[in-house]
Structure formats: C-alpha cells, structure tokens
Amino acid sequence: MKDNLSQNKITSLQNPKVKEVVLLQEKAREREKTGLFPVEGTREVSACISSGFEIDSVFLCDEILEEKPNLKGIAPEKIFCVTPQVYEKIAYRSSTEGILAIAKARHTSLSDLGNILKNSRLNPLILVAEAVEKPGNLGAILRTADAVGATAVIFANPRTDLYNPNLIRASLGGVFTQTIVCCKSEDAIDFLKQHGIKIYTAQLQDSVPYYGTDMTEACAIALGSESGGISDIWRKASDRKILIPMLGRLDSLNVSVSASILCYEALRQRTAK
Predict the structure, then answer these.
(1) Residue 71: which CATH number?
(2) Total structural domains in the chain?
(3) Residue 1: inside a domain, yes or no?
(4) Are both 148 and 95 inside the same structural domain?
(5) In terms of Cα–Cα distance, which of 202, 196, 146, 150 is closest to 171?
(6) What's 257's DSSP letter?
(7) Full-model pTM
(8) Is 3 part of any domain?
(9) Same domain as 131, residue 56
(10) What is the DSSP letter of 225?
(11) Quick check: 22 pLDDT over 80?
(12) Which of 200, 204, 213, 247 is the 20 to 30 A CA-CA neighbour of 222?
C-alpha cells in the first residue's frame, strides 16, 4: 500500500500498545477488566465500525494491507502503522489482511431486548444457545441468525466470552450485526414467558419432528451444549419439544448445523405465510 494512513509508527515489539494488544488477544480476564477487545480482518473491522462500536485504536501494516480501509470517523491519533514483525506479534492469525482494531465492548441486557421487541412489528424469532462452549459453533450460530433475520440471539449460561477472537472470526462479523444477550438460563426463560414467546427445545426425548411445529408465531428455538444437550430447566419450560429426524446410526448433529436447520424452517414458514 503506497500511502500511509497514519503518521504514528510502531516498530518495536516492546511498545506498550503491542503488549496491550497481545494481552487482549490471549486473556479473557483482560478483555473483561478493560472492556476492550481485538478485531482482525477488513470485513470484521468494517462490520464493527458500521455497527456503531466505539474504536479505541487501529493498527495497519502497509506491507500486508491491499486496499485502503474505510476508517471514516476514526481520529488520526488512534491509527497506527506497524511493521510486519509487529503485526505478526499482535495478530491472532497472521493472514488477517493487515488490519487490526481495538474496540470497546457493548453489552445488551434482557431489558434492552424488551425495548427492541416493543418497537418491532414482526413476531420475534429468537435463537437460544445454552452453555455452548466452542467459539466456532457460536460463530456459526451467529451467521445463521444473521442470514435468517433473527430478532436476537441469547447465550444462556455462556461458557465463552462474547469477544473471544475465535468467536469473532468464526462469526465473520456476526457478533457485531446481531442483538446478543448473555444471561442465566433462568432469567432468559422468565423473559421469554413474560413476553409471550413460545419456547421450542431441540431434544431427542419426548419430542416431535420440527416440521410439524408452527414457527410463524413468536418463538424461541433453544439448543443445548455440544456434550450434554439442553438442560432440564429448559426442558421443563418448553412449550414444545422438537427433533430433527436422523436415519443413520449416529444420534447427534453439530449444534450449529441443528440451529441452521431449525432457523431455516422458521424462515420458510414465515416466508410462505
């Protein structure tokens, strides 16, 4: 890239800002303490900025960066150019297009979600992931939620922090485009019941095929962890227990695949109606 976007240059691996980024990449506790998190890649940084997240700083590597990113609204003093060696040090993955940003975390509460529901004319479609641990699965769930136009995603009893670098990358920016609430299962269930939202739990026991369920009404599709499935508290709160028929010898689908199948059935029904 021929033109520098910043007069600020970082060449030393010992620079305090380099050490700060490394800590944020590696330590969930540091992200929680500071309220900051790293975002890598042109698509992800663009989604973060366009979704209104406050940007603390941006790091660019001219030797890797292929095109000038849209950093409109970012103060020049927050933009730093770094050498390839420095970028390799601060990047979680080396092939992230030469752009990394540090953003301020934003958390949505159930109360905030309630306000969103009040202002919506559509029957809500909410996706619930209870105690799902793998960032890749959570990221894929967020991509599905974005694709079907889900109202919100609830991470109940979360096992991974929302701004885990792997989760952000796996979501392809979906962590920024979606309304996401992290809360306890009990609180999520109370909220859904109070707002008249049907709870459909994905489970094998005492359940019926998903395609026989009306998903055009206000509903929440709840899926459990990779190992244990949905917990008893959700089973007891369920308005309808649904399953995805499987004719092979295995009795389990990846949780993100299950989320996609069920969400697209809801979209199919709503589109047809």
Answers:
(1) 3.30.1330.30
(2) 2
(3) no
(4) no
(5) 146
(6) H
(7) 0.92
(8) no
(9) no
(10) B
(11) yes
(12) 247
Burial of 208 (0-12, 13-18, 19+ CB in 10 A): exposed
Q: Are 219 and 240 in contact (CB under 8 A)?
A: no
Q: List the structure tokens of 126.
A: 């909410």
Comparing 64-73, 128-137, 226-235, the range with the smallest average pLDDT is 64-73
| 169: nearest Cα among 264, 47, 259 | 47
- Which residue from 103, 104, 165 is spatially nearest to 138, judged by alpha carbons? 165
**124 and 182 share a domain?**
yes
Give me 50's structure tokens: 């366009």
In this predicted structure, the answer to whether residue 5 has a pLDDT above a threshold of 60 is no
State whether 42 and 163 are in the same domain.
Answer: no
Binned at pLDDT 50, 70 and 90, residue 107 comes out as very high
Domain shared by 213 and 158, yes or no: yes
Sheet holding 8-10, edge to edge: 8-10, 79-82, 55-60, 99-104, 36-40
Based on the fold, state whether residues 160 and 98 are members of the same structural domain. Answer: no
| Helix (H) or strand (E) segment spanning residue 271 | helix 255-272
Residue-wise pLDDT for 143-200, tens only, equals 999 999 999 999 999 999 999 999 999 999 999 999 999 999 999 999 999 999 999 9
CATH value at residue 196: 3.40.1280.10
Residue 32 lies in a domain: yes
Q: Tens of pLDDT along 56-91?
A: 999 999 999 877 778 988 999 999 999 999 999 999
Does 188 reside within a domain? yes
Same domain, 48 and 156: no
**Among 131, 142, 165, 155, residue whose Cα is nearest residue 36:** 165
Strand partners, 93: none
| Burial readout 121-150 (b: 16 or more C-beta within 10 A, e: otherwise) | eebbbbbbbbbbebbebbbbbbbbbbebeb
